[in-house]
């Protein structure tokens, strides 16, 4: 072993000892995640919506919506609720889709399975599972009223609800409402 090599060897040995010492001091356990030093970038300080937050008005993280706020794209001011307005929507609103839009029909079928089958059943006859458990059956979507109903009127019903059926505006955005109507048309053989 020449003197130069010996020198390197000693340096390396000292370095190894220092590393081991630091390792002992910091207590690194390689079976565990590393010790975290600056955690702010890792863990967001964003408040949970329902958590207390003394920095904000009312001590709440989630602030009330500004009056008049609507979901983007859901603004539907041209029509009010009710059957007359539904009929007017039937005359004035046109679906952005046609039966050639197979994507719209496929997505509509998924949405129908999620939101509508429980009452209207997969075929649209109105014999869904909640009806089998005692709810009054909805009218069949294959009956003449729904068959002859313009798309726009159906859109209005999905937006505002009708009688016992609630609005689906919170569950489906306008595009999805038109898509589900496409599926109703497919069920009707249109
Ligand atoms: C909780 C049960 C329920 C669900 C879920 C439901 N509906 Fe209805 N639907 C009804 C009832 C009940 C009526 C009849 C309302 C009335 O006129 O009193 C109705 C009426 C309708 C009508 C009007 C039919 C007519 O002849 O007047 C259409 C169209 C319709 N529903 C489509 C849908 C679509 C599309 C969905 C899914 C997005 C859906 N419904 C989800 C219960 C439901």
* Shape annotation: elongated
The CATH topology of the largest domain is what? Answer: Cytochrome Bc1 Complex, Chain D, domain 2
Content-based structural category: mainly alpha
CATH class of the largest domain equals: Mainly Alpha
Q: What's the CATH superfamily of the largest domain, by name? A: Cytochrome c-like domain
Percent helix, as a range, is: 40-55%
Show unreliable segments.
none
Q: What is the terminal separation in angstroms?
A: 92 Å
Label the CATH architecture of the largest domain: Orthogonal Bundle
The number of distinct structural domains comes to 2
Output the radius of gyration: 32 Å
Mean pLDDT: 91
Strand and helix order: HHHHHHHH
Which band does the percent of strand residues land in? Answer: under 5%
């Amino acid at each position: 072993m020449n003197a130069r090599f010996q020198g390197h060897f000693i340096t390396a040995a000292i370095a190894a000892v220092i590393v081991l010492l630091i390792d002992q001091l910091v207590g690194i356990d390689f079976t565990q995640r590393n010790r975290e030093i600056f955690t702010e970038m890792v863990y967001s300080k964003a408040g949970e919506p329902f958590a207390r937050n003394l920095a904000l008005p009312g001590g709440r993280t989630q602030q009330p919506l500004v009056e008049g706020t609507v979901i983007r794209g859901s603004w539907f001011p041209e029509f009010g609720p009710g059957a007359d307005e539904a009929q007017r929507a039937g005359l004035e609103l046109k679906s952005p889709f046609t039966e050639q839009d197979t994507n719209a029909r496929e997505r509509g079928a998924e949405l129908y399975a999620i939101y509508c089958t429980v009452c209207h059943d997969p075929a649209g006859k109105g014999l869904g599972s909640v009806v089998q458990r005692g709810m009054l059956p909805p009218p069949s979507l294959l009956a003449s009223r729904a068959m002859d109903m313009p798309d726009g009127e159906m859109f209005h019903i999905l937006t505002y609800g009708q009688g016992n059926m609630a609005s689906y505006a919170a569950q489906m955005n306008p595009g999805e409402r038109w898509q589900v109507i496409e599926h109703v048309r497919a069920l009707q053989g249109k």
